[in-house]
Specification:
- By secondary structure, the chain is an alpha/beta fold.
- Helix content is 32%, strand content 24%.
- The protein has a seven-stranded mixed sheet with strand order 4-3-2-5-10-17-16, with helices on both faces.
- 46% of the residues are buried.
- Bound molecules: S-adenosylmethionine (SAM).
- Residues 34, 40, 48, 50-51, 82-85, 113-116, 128, 142-144, 147-148 line the site of S-adenosylmethionine.
Length: 401
C-alpha cells in the first residue's frame, strides 16, 4: 500500500490526525519515504555528512578511540549508532579504527541500527529490536533527531492550537484544533513569549522516550548526537514565524509536507534545549557542545586537508575530495550543525572534539580516507561517469527564519 492510501484510510476511520501521526506514516509507515529506496545519495533527495566525505567518520573514529582510552581501554567498547541509514558512517568508522589502533579495533563492537534498515547497506544495519542493553561505549547518531515526527502548532487569535491533517476531496488539508495531549500543552506553555498571530512552529514530543531508551542501552560512556538546530530561545524566536519544517524532494527544498506523502523527506530543526532536558531526566550529564566545524577541527580536519593538498592524485579526484571535506566544515552549512555530547556513569574529562582549549589537533590518522564512489557523493557533480546538478547548500538546507 502506498503512504497516501494508508494515511487516507486512517483519516477515514478516525477523523483528523495530528501532524506528528501524518509525518510518522509519511516517513516510516507502509510506502513511507524511508521504506522506499535510498533517499540519501546523488540520485536521492539530499546528502549528509557521512555521504559527503569519509573523513567525517574517520575523525569520529579518532574521538571514539579517545573515549575508549578514557575508559581505560576496556576489552569491549560498543558503539550503537541509531538512525544508521545505509551504514556508510559505520563502514567509514570501522575501517579507520582498523588502521588507527589494532587494540581499539579488537575492542570495538559496532552496532548500526535503523527503524527501517534499507536494502543497500555498506555495513550490516539491524532493526531497532536488535538494540543491545547495558553497554560500555558510545551511542552515536547523525541527523537522527531531525527525522523524528513533530507536532505542529499555530498561534490563532491569541490561542495556541495544534495542526491536524484531514482530507478534502483528493487532498490533505490542515485543520487547527486544541492540543492533542497535556504534554504538548505543557511544552507549549514554555513558549509563552508573546508570539505573533499566525506564528507556527514544531515540537518533538519523542525526545523523552528516546532519551529513556538511550539510558537503558548505555551503562557507561557517552552519547554523541549531531544535527541541525538551535537552543530553544533561538528556535522559537518571535521572528521565526514559519517554523523550521522543511521537505526535500529530488534535491529541492520545499515547505509543503502534505504534498507527495511517502515521496519526500520531512524534517525539522532540533530544539537542543529539549534534548538537554530529556537527556538530563534520563540520567545523562552534559559533556559539552560544539559546532561540527569546531569538532572536526579539534580532531584534525585541517591536517587531513593538508595531506590531501600534498597527495599525488589526479586533479578531478583531488578536487572532489576537497569539495567533500569543505562541505563538512562549511560555516554556512554542515559546519554549523551542533555536536552535543552527554556522559553516563563516567568521570567526564573533556572529549577531544569538545575541548575549547584544543584548537587544531595533530594528525592522528594513519592515512587519508578518500571518496569511495559506492559510498560517497562526488560534490563536484561527477558520479559514476555521469554528471548531476549538485544542489547548493542553500537549496538543501536553509535555516533562515
Ligand atoms: C536523515 S536520515 C540520516 C541517516 C544517516 N545517519 C546519515 O547521516 O546519513 C535519518 C535516519 O534515521 C532513521 N530513524 C528515524 N527515527 C529513528 C528511530 N527512532 N530509531 C532509529 N532510526 C531512526 C531513519 O530511518 C533514517 O535512516
Amino acid at each position: 500500500m502506498d503512504a497516501r492510501t494508508a494515511i487516507r484510510n486512517t483519516i477515514d476511520q478516525r477523523g483528523p490526525i495530528t501532524f506528528a501521526e501524518f509525518m510518522e506514516a509519511a516517513l516510516y509507515g507502509p510506502g513511507g519515504y524511508y521504506n522506499s529506496g535510498s533517499p540519501i545519495s546523488a540520485s536521492g533527495d539530499y546528502f549528509t555528512a557521512p555521504t559527503a566525505h569519509p573523513l567525517f567518520g574517520a575523525l569520529i573514529a579518532v574521538q571514539l578511540r579517545q573515549m575508549w582510552q578514557l575508559l581505560d581501554k576496556p576489552d569491549e567498547f560498543t558503539v550503537v549508532e541509531e538512525g544508521a541509514g545505509n551504514g556508510g558512517l559505520a563502514a567509514d568508522i570501522v575501517e579507520t579504527a582498523a588502521q588507527l589502533d589494532s587494540d581499539f579495533h579488537s575492542a570495538l563492537r559496532y552496532v548500526a541500527l535503523d527503524v527501517v534498515p534499507p536494502e543497500t547497506q555498506h555495513y550490516a544495519v539491524l532493526p531497532l529490536a536488535e538494540v543491545p542493553q547495558e553497554v560500555t561505549g558510545c551511542l552515536l547518531s547523525n541527523e537522527l533527531l531531525d527525522a523524528m515526527p513533530v507536532h505542529r502548532f499555530q498561534v490563532q487569535g491569541g490561542e495556541l492550537l495544534e495542526v491536524f491533517v484531514a482530507t478534502e476531496g483528493d487532498e490533505f488539508v490542515e485543520v487547527l484544533q486544541p492540543p492533542s495531549s497535556s504534554e504538548l500543552e505543557r511544552r507549549l506553555s514554555q513558549l509563552t513569549a508573546s508570539l505573533p498571530d499566525g506564528y507556527r512552529s514544531e515540537i518533538n514530543l519523542g525526545l523523552d522516550s528516546w532519551a529513556q531508551r538511550q539510558s537503558a542501552v548505555l551503562k557507561s560512556g557517552w552519547a554523541l548526537t549531531i544535527d541541525y538546530g538551535f537552543e530553544r530561545s533561538v528556535l522559537y524566536g518571535p521572528e521565526r514565524t514559519a517554523g523550521s519544517l522543511r521537505t526535500y524532494y529530488q534535491h529541492t527544498l520545499g515547505q509543503d509536507p502534505l504534498l507527495h506523502p511517502g515521496e519526500q523527506d520531512i524534517t525539522a530543526h532540533v530544539d537542543f534545549t529539549a534534548v538537554d532536558e530529556a537527556m538530563s531526566k534520563a540520567g545523562f550529564v552534559s559533556a559539552g557542545t560544539a559546532y561540527q566545524a569546531e569538532f572536526l577541527q579539534r580532531l584534525g580536519v585541517h591536517a587531513a586537508a593538508e595531506r590531501l593538498r600534498a597527495a599525488p592524485l589526479p586533479r578531478p579526484q583531488k578536487l572532489a575530495n576537497q569539495r567533500g571535506i569543505e562541505a563538512l566544515i562549511d560555516p554556512n552549512g554542515m559546519g554549523r550543525f551542533v555536536v552535543a555530547a552527554y556522559s553516563r556513569n563516567v568521570e567526564t574529562p573533556t572529549l577531544l572534539g569538545l575541548d575549547p582549549n584544543t584548537a587544531d589537533s595533530q594528525d592522528q590518522l594513519v592515512s587519508l580516507p578518500l571518496l569511495n564512489p559506492r559510498r560517497h557523493i562526488d560534490l563536484t557533480g561527477h558520479q559514476s561517469g555521469s554528471y548531476f546538478e549538485v544542489p547548493s547548500f542553500e537549496d538543501l538546507f536553509s535555516d533562515e527564519p
